[in-house]
Amino acid sequence: MLDVLKVIILGIVEGITEWLPVSSTGHLILVGDLLSPSMSDEFMEMFNVVIQLGAIMAVVVLYFHKLNPFSPKKTQKQKMLTWQMWIKVLIASVPAAVIGLLFNDILDEIFYKPLPVAVMLIVYGILFIIVENRNEGRRATVRKISELTVPMLLWIGFFQMLALIPGTSRSGATIIGALLIGISREVAAEFTFFLAIPVMFGASFLKLVKFGFHFTGSELGLLLLGCLVSFGLSIVAIKFLMGYIKKHDFKVFGYYRIVLGALIILVTIVQAFLA
After folding, report:
1. Rounded to whole angstroms, how far apart are CA atoms 172 and 257?
2. Residue 263: how many CB atoms within 10 A of its CB?
3. Contact 185, 179 (CB under 8 A)
4. How far is CA 147 from the centre of its chain?
5. Which string of b and e fits 192-227 if b means at least 16 CB within 10 Å?
6. If exposure means fewest CB atoms within 10 Å of the residue's CB, which of 56, 92, 166, 217 is most exposed?
7. Nearest residue to 124 via CA among 181, 157, 165
């Protein structure tokens, strides 16, 4: 029963933080360490990634019409633009897919710890503040996904690749990359949502293969529960973020990341002294 409550908390954390540029994986590592669920380390490593499938399904549900190239409600031109959008998503996914397949295990072994997460939280928090201050008063040059060019897509894909390091935030990295080249906040956020679909499905599949699909009944139940809670909270988080950025910039998330990162470093130092 206690593990059920802990998984619900982890699902809430994932659902809220997956779409806000504050690093969902980083939060799951930290909250997981604090809660200390009674599952194996191997299961928790897989759980922290696969739980993101619930969050991804929230994007599919909220944007189903926009993502669906077969919708009978769309004109031929709209269907063509939808196919073009999916091609752009796949192009931007290439860098992270290649590096993830080659170095995923090495990156996890090195960086899947509280201190590297804290450093990445602070670094990208500072970047958010710098980029938003730089863009203040400037008008975005790209205001539609259809205006994204191949070089822009590869640039965004490069920043998504950087998010393979826990604590970076996939949405945070790709949004920063997009803002740097003049893409509007709304387009940056929305394209980041769509970009997550193939990346997170791929990452989840790799983790499931590594784990071996050898679930006990309770483990499978806990994983499904986490995904369900993550799905519900993601619906709320996505709607909040898209409404928020119409009137505000991303600097508040930068300040949050810096404070959280500093707090984690402080706690880590205290734990080291007390050990």
Report:
1. 10
2. 13
3. yes
4. 23
5. bbbbbbbbbeebbebbbeebeeebeeebeebbebbb
6. 217
7. 165
In terms of residues, how long is the chain? 275
* DSSP single-letter state for residue 38: S
CA 68 to chain centre: 22
Please say whether the dihedral angle defined by the alpha carbons of residues 54, 246, 243 and 233, taken in this order, is positive or negative: positive
Structure tokens at 175: 């949004």
Q: How do residues 197-250 score in pLDDT, each as one tens digit?
A: 988 888 888 888 888 877 788 888 999 999 999 999 999 999 999 999 988 999
Tokens of 119: 């450093």
What would the two tokens of residue 144 be? 């539609």
The structural domains of the chain, with segments of one domain joined by +, span 2-274
Residue at 153: amino acid letter: L
